[in-house]
């Protein structure tokens, strides 16, 4: 049976009926990130934890990422072979990372006396569109997983990958995509909870690798989590949070290295829970600070300052399938009738976007393009920002006191973002975290991972 769970279309109705309701056991999906299965010891540690849950009577589906920094290493390897790898072959290469960890984890679980079977994304019924490198889930058909569970097995699924029925090719979901695999399976199997196991104790008010005094958040609304993830907090894949909210999947983010309770991401619209309890009504409520090093800044220099030119530039970028983030248009340089337009986009999409822009240079009539990957973006996330002028004043004062020069600014009701030089980003994050009184007395534990 096929369960249509559409990732992309807003407002689509959840179709999360269980494939079989043969049992009243709890069904849990547990996702383990790369740092949790970085080596043989890690794989055995995870296997023991999974077996414990199985022995306690739960039905357990495990989604696993590639070991340690395998995905980055495979990308480096491809880069040494060619600077223009075909997208299809890139997905064949990258999907191998999760195949290694899933099989090793299944072996370790079998060794510990429980029975496990591993499945690739396509075997597990993760059906995607055909866009290599950033495929979106269009259907989940987990009948093989359901059958494995019914037979008493633990099912291990390779995260981050799927298959297109249109092209019959293997696809990957984009960096960090195993989180989304886990939530999509949890929705399709009607799981009771989706646990995201990682190398920190949950979602913090900032990345604990950058801000050791960051505070753990016990419960966070999906709106706040969406904004943090969208602003670069890589603790959760953005699409995983969107998916969990749409299909009502409770998410528990926690460490695979401790038994500590982690952070619950609450899917309901009414679950507005914030980090600062007891604040007076109508005070701005800050959720946290996110940062992002994955974007580059493009400046299109000397654009004719007449209607239609911005539209032409962004059409070219859209046709190159790039996701634009911040946009700034400078005032027209006096007397020249020309202006500069700057925007940010993911570094991984930079080369294609630049090639497309260069190809359109004569038609659009701009003078040149500047491209800078040495930038970082910092975002302060919280409710009620726009209606509290004091927030911006405090924000910019803190950056100024820390000697941080700002390149670009954008704001919304719940976010202030700035772009700085990449080397200043960590200092900027710490300065803002401190300025908004988010620092805690305790030092956050980072159990593993390289931060890559
Ligand atoms: P995994 O390999 O388990 O998927 P990731 O590296 O993708 O792990 O995500 C976990 C990392 O996210 C943490 O080690 C931490 O450095 C980083 N991170 C960024 N922002 C936050 C945040 N607000 N709270 C917790 N961790 C964060
Ligand atoms: N292994 C993939 C990555 O490193 C997917 C994931 O870990 O979620 O991006
Ligand atoms: Mg991750």
Q: How would you characterize the overall build of this protein?
A:
The protein has 452 residues and is of the alpha/beta class. It folds into two domains: 27-279, Acetylglutamate kinase-like (Carbamate kinase); 286-435, VC0802-like (2-Layer Sandwich), CATH 3.30.2130. Helices cover 31% and strands 24% of the residues. The protein has helices spanning 40-55, 70-81, 87-111, 143-150, 178-188, 222-230, 238-247, 309-319, 350-359, 361-364, 389-401, 425-435; strands at 27-32, 59-64, 116-119, 126-128, 137-140, 154-158, 161-164, 170-172, 193-198, 219-221, 251-255, 263-266, 285-292, 295-304, 327-329, 338-346, 368-372, 375-383, 408-412, 415-421. The strands form four sheets. An eight-stranded mixed sheet has the order 3-6-2-1-9-11-12-10, with helices on both faces. The protein has a four-stranded mixed sheet with strand order 5-4-7-8. Helix 1 (40-55) links the parallel strand 1 (27-32) and strand 2. Helix 5 runs parallel beside helix 7 (238-247), helix 6 packs antiparallel against helix 7 and helix 11 (389-401) crosses helix 12. The longest helix is centred in the first third of the chain and has 25 residues, at 87-111. It is globular. The chain starts with 26 loop residues before the first strand and ends in a 17-residue tail after the last helix. Mean pLDDT is 91; it is low at 1-6, 8-22 and 272-279. Adenosine-5'-diphosphate binds at residues 33-36, 65, 176, 198-200, 203-204, 206-209, 228, 233-235, 288, 446, 449, 451. It is an enzyme of class 2 (transferase). Belongs to the aspartokinase family. Keywords: Amino-acid biosynthesis, ATP-binding, Diaminopimelate biosynthesis, Kinase, Lysine biosynthesis, Nucleotide-binding, Transferase.
